[in-house]
Structure formats: structure tokens, C-alpha cells
Amino acid sequence: MNTAIIATLLLVLLGLAYQTGWSRSRRLAPAGETKLHSRPVYHGALAAIWTLVPALLIFALWALFGETASRAYLLAQLPPDVLALGSAELESTLRRIRQIESGFGVVGDALPWENQAAQALREFSTLTYAAVIAAAAGTGALALWLANRRISLRLRARNEVERVVSAAMITCSVVAILTTAGIVASLLFEALRFFSFVSPIDFFFGTVWNPGFSTTGQGAAGEYGLLPLLWGTLMVASIAILVALPIGLMTAIYLTQYASQRTRSTVKPVIEILAGIPTIVYGFFALVTVGPFLAGVGDTLGIDIRATSALTAGIVMGIMIIPFISSLSDDIIRQVPRAMRDGSLGLGATQSETIKRVILPAALPGIVGAFLLAVSRAIGETMIVVLAAGNSPFLRLNPGEPVSTVTVTIVNQLTGDTDFASPQSLVAFALGLTLFIMTLILNVAALYIVRRYREQYE
Amino acid sequence: MNENTQLEAREMHMPTEKIVARSDLYEMESSTVRTPDAEQRPVRVTARNVSVFYGPKQSLFDVSIDIPEKAVTAFIGPSGCGKSTFLRCFNRMNDTIEGCRVTGKISLDGGDIYDPALDVVELRARVGMVFQKPNPFPKSIYENVAYGPRIHGLARSKADMDAIVESSLQKASLWNEVKDRLHEPGTGLSGGQQQRLCIARAIAVSPEVILMDEPCSALDPIATARIEELIDELKQNYTIVIVTHSMQQAARVSQRTAFFHLGNLVEEGPTDLIFTSPGEKRTQDYITGRYG
Ligand SMILES: Nc1ncnc2c1ncn2[C@@H]1O[C@H](COP(=O)(O)OP(=O)(O)OP(=O)(O)O)[C@@H](O)[C@H]1O
Ligand SMILES: [Mg+2]
């Protein structure tokens, strides 16, 4: 109900403001006689902005501080002996009172002083609510009046609306940037806590991963060498790229250079279905189909390939990345001007000579960019490896053996009972940070290369 | 095909072909009185009843024409009349356009170029093409010119290749401007230089016929004049077909002119005749700028 009332109020203010702004500016300039600087729609929009922004600000303040205020009021209502309780008990009392107030009821009988406090809280809430609505409506009305007074022939409503719009856009992008910064900061902060237990040198250059179990107060038990995990990650990602790059690239070349329009319009969506499959499903596929199949192949050949291994995870991950590479390369190859292709064909080159000597070299920077993006995707992929890589954090060369990766280890360290003060779980943040920096570098490199390539042809 | 068989083919086929061509022309233009062609050159390329369809839409209707050897033939006509479409038939570049279909017969030295047994790649080496917009590859100047010879294996050694590159650039009158920067990118040249580079690139595979689709339309008047001079020199050795929107250019560089309108060949003849006393009202109107 609360939100409905607020929304109605805001809508009414909006409609009213827009309408008055619009009609007032219309009246100033009867058709064809004098000229308004801005069309009435802009005056309407400007008035609406002027009215809504202060009202919204009041609601925002309420959302930010309302809770604190009501808590302070409630504390003031409690008898002194309750206030003297420990913080945990006090919190549960407060929760009880709020439940009585909202009418949900509580376990056991409500004590008289609890009922009293709840009653007082209820009155306080109703009062503040009414006050906030009144304040918002009042400020809105005042702002509307001011906005209306400003309307004149020469008021540059159009330019002002433009400024407000651009400010709104900037705010949105700032939100996105701040979120990223926030994520990095929290990662960094927790990672630093981890490094207070384990030295960065042991972490980055250690070759043994054996974190032990988290028992509070035990300190830095276990070994936290990153290298086995990094090695596993790189091995799985390389296998994935070895699978995905040739297949994806050939697909893109076929689709852009050889396929007829009809083939293209059926093949492309089918390939893109691959991109829509949830990674956990790829995980099943690896575990149930590819793993046993590879193990069987290994048996026939006399090689020891385990069902869950770097190979299984890498191949399935490669399949997952195919559409990624093929659609990116498709776009890039398509951007090579047709004139290049015609020039080569016109000299008597065959289709494949043209592709090899003209189209691919011209598209190469873009393809490298696509490749780097795919690598960063492979490094960050989690589900397939969790299910199919075998989770065995040892430095091993043979891709037929199980491995563990950075992402899998993060999952392991953060699932189950976690105590966020122990290095066993804090290490997840250090791992996350490592992963983040790796993919960041790859993405920046990819973007840089792709951008340079764009400049070449436009 | 080597020199001998080419010559044989010409001797064997040309006389009959020529008779057909003449009678065709006279049938087509029976209403107009024509003075005979001043320069009787052997015919290199003949097209008979060529029609082109893009999907279901027909864009060229039953065009027949003879292209004389070592001369410049100009195609003129309003935009969209099918000049480029027809030009692309001669080296089968239409094959690369999806949904494009060509009917009729085109022969080069008497051999049908749409014969399924014919190797398109070889044909395109014999019939080179220069496009409307200069389209050098994003490679060095040297590599641009060496591209064709390399593909066709025309050079045995590095020295051979150097010689081909130099002579091609010289024939395209670009050598003096680029001889000190052969290994800089071809895309770094000026528009006119790029177009001459593209001509050099086409010449490097020693084609017999060179097709040029509005080769000067992206160039300024000075660069245009250079290219026109070049075309004039090239016609000593090559058979040239050029599409142009400029009447002056057609009049300056060509010996024969063909006027197209709405996918039809309206008339064709010696350039001076077409420009001084065209046989058709449509031609007259176009040349004098009444439409186009
Ligand atoms: N790739 C294509 N697909 C479909 N239709 C085409 C294609 N190329 C040309 N056409 C059509 O064929 C007709 C002739 O086009 P063409 O390019 O040969 O004209 P043009 O005489 O060269 O014109 P311009 O002087 O503008 O270059 C036009 O109606 C055009 O729309
Ligand atoms: Mg054209």
C-alpha cells in the first residue's frame, strides 16, 4: 500500500507539472504570433523535472534515514532495564516489538510494556509516513509553482532538459563504474586480510596447494601455493582454445565466404544455440558422455585417460566457446571490405587463396582480439571444471590426469561452513583477485587490438 | 594458352565470327545509316545475346557486341543501366554475386568463357579488372604488384619477381614515384597513385584484356588526366573496356563507344560517330545531357 500511495503521488505530480508547463508555455505564444525558444513539450518536461526531483529527494532521505529514526524512537520507549541488556538480546527484543507492531504476532505472550512500545512505534510510523507524504507533496507543489513562474518566451527549456538528460546518463554510468570499483575494493580488502596470514611470495610462487581445514584460531595452517591451480587453469584453457579456435574460425570462414544465404540463415542460429546452453548442462555432458568416452578411447589406445581430467573439461569448454569465437570472427571477417575480396578474385586468385592471403591477414588483429576474449572466458569458466576436471590440485603435465583450477578452488573454499576470518576461506578472495587481474589484462589487450583494427578500415 | 594456339584460334575463328558480328550489327541498326568502321581491327571478345538476372529480376537484355583488339571500348549510359553488370560478365566476376545468373554466349578468342570446363581462375588472369574505387591490399606496394604473379607462379626467382614488379609499375607510370618506397604500405599512397597501383597489379599477370569500371570516378582532374594518358598508352598492348560517366572521357580515350539504357544496348560504334551523329534519339539525348 505504501508504495502504491507514493507512486500515485509521484504520478499525479508528474502529470500536473507536465500539463501546467505545457499549457502555460502554449498560452505565452499563441500560434504563429511570437516565437517560443523551446517547444511546449520541453517546458512541460522541465516543469515535471523541477517538481519531481525535490519530491524524490525527500523520499530518498526517508529511505536512507527513516529506519535509524524509528529505531532511535523505539529505544527511547523501552524501559531502562531492557536497555541494559546485552546487544544480542536487545536486538531480539526489538525484533519482537516490530513483529507485534506489524501484526504478525510473536512466540509466547506479549508483555504489556512490549505492547505499549509497539503501539507507540505504530503511531510514530503513521505520523512520519504522513509527514513525509505531506512534505513531498508540499515541496513538489512549491517547486511546481517556481517552475511555472520561470516559464517565459526566452526560457531555454530545451537546453535545460538536455542537461538533465545528460546528467542522468552520467549518473547511470557512474553507478556501473562504482559497482566495479566496489567489487575490486572488496576483493582487494579481503585479499589483503589473507596476505596478513600468508606471505604473497608463498602464495604466488608456492607449488603445493594444501589449505587444510578451517578451524578457528589455528592461524595459517596448510600451504597455499597458487602455481598448481594456475597450471590447471592454463592447461584446461589451452585445450579449450585448441578445440575452439580452429573449429570456430573455420565455421566463420565457411559462413562468410562459402555458404549460401540459405545455409547461413539456418546454420548460424543452430550454432548460436550452443551459446545459450547453461554451463552446468555442459558440465553434465562432460561428466556423463565425454569423460567416459575419452576414458574408453584411452583404454583402446593403451593410454591412461581419466574420466574427469583436464582433457575432458578442456574439450567440453572448447565446445562451449565455439560460438563465441565463430560469431566474433564472423563479424570481423564481414568487416573486411568486399573490394579487397573482389580485387583478389579479379586477379585470378581462388577463393581459398583470397581467404589465406587477403581476408585473414586483414582480419587478423580482430581475430586476435576475439581469441583473447575467448581465453579470458575460458579462464573464468567454473561449472564445467567443477564437474569434469577432477579437482586435484597437483602440478601434473599429463592432460589425461585430473587437475584443479582457480575457479574450482574458489568454489571449494567458499562452500560449506565458512568462517570468514580464516585463511582457508580468505584465500578465495586472493584467488578471485588473481583471476580478475588476469582476465582484466586479457580484456584490455583484446579491446586495444580490436580498436586499432577498427580504425584501419573506417 | 600459349601464343601459338591463341593465334591459331584467332585465325580459325575470327573470320566467321566477324561476319556474324557485322551482320548482327546491320540487323540491329538497319534503320540507321552507318559509315563503316575506319579502323578494321580484329575482334578479341564477342558477346552474343547476353542477359543477366539478379534473382528473378532481369538487369541486362540480350546484349551483343564485339570488342576490338588493342583499342579502348567505352560503355556509357545512365546510372543503373547495367554497364557494370555487363562488364563483370567478361571475367565472370558475376559468379561471385549470390543469385546472379548469366545467359547467352561470350567468347574470348573464340573460346566460350562460360564453358563449364573452363577454369575461371585462368580466365581472370587473362581478363584483368580495375575497380571503381582504388582497392589496394593492406600490404606493401611491392606485395600488391607481386600478388598476382605469385599466385599464378609467373616468377621463378626473386629477380624475376623484381623485374615483373618494376616493369608493371613502369607501364602503370608509377615507378618513378614509388621506386624508393616499394616496401611501404600501398594504402599510404594518394588516391590517384593507388588507382595506378591497382592498374599495375592487374598488368602484372599479363592479361590480354583489361576491364575498368569507372576507374577515375574517385579521383581529381589531375589524377584523372594521368590515368587517361596511361589508358592511351596501354591500348598499344592491351584490349581495354572502360565504363565511364564522363562523356569527355569516353570521347578522349575510346575508339568505340557503346550506349546502354535500361539494360539494353541501344547502339554501338566508332566513338567519333556516336558523338557526332548518333543513330538513336536516346543516345543523342544522353550525350547532350538531356537525361542521365
Ligand atoms: N548485386 C546485385 N544484386 C541485385 N541487383 C543488382 C546487383 N548489382 C546490380 N544490380 C541491379 O542491376 C542493374 C544494373 O546495375 P549496374 O550496377 O550494372 O548499373 P551501372 O550501369 O553500372 O550503374 P552505375 O553507373 O551507377 O554504376 C541495376 O538495376 C541494379 O539495381
Ligand atoms: Mg557501375
From TrEMBL, chain A:
Pfam family, one: BPD_transp_1
Highest taxon in the source lineage: Bacteria
Keyword hit for Iron: no
Keywords carried by this UniProt record: Cell inner membrane, Cell membrane, Membrane, Phosphate transport, Transmembrane, Transmembrane helix, Transport
Keyword Transport listed: yes
Domain ABC transmembrane type-1: 230-446
Name the record gives this protein: Phosphate transport system permease protein
NCBIfam families the UniProt entry points to: phosphate_pstC
Membrane association type: Multi-pass membrane protein
Predominant location: membrane
InterPro entries: MetI-like, MetI-like_sf, Phosphate_PstC, PstC_N
Role, per record: Part of the binding-protein-dependent transport system for phosphate; probably responsible for the translocation of the substrate across the membrane.
Gene name tied to this protein: pstC
Membrane-crossing residue ranges in chain numbering: 41-65, 127-147, 167-185, 229-253, 273-295, 307-328, 358-379, 426-450
Gene3D superfamilies listed in its UniProt record: MetI-like
Organism field: Aquamicrobium zhengzhouense
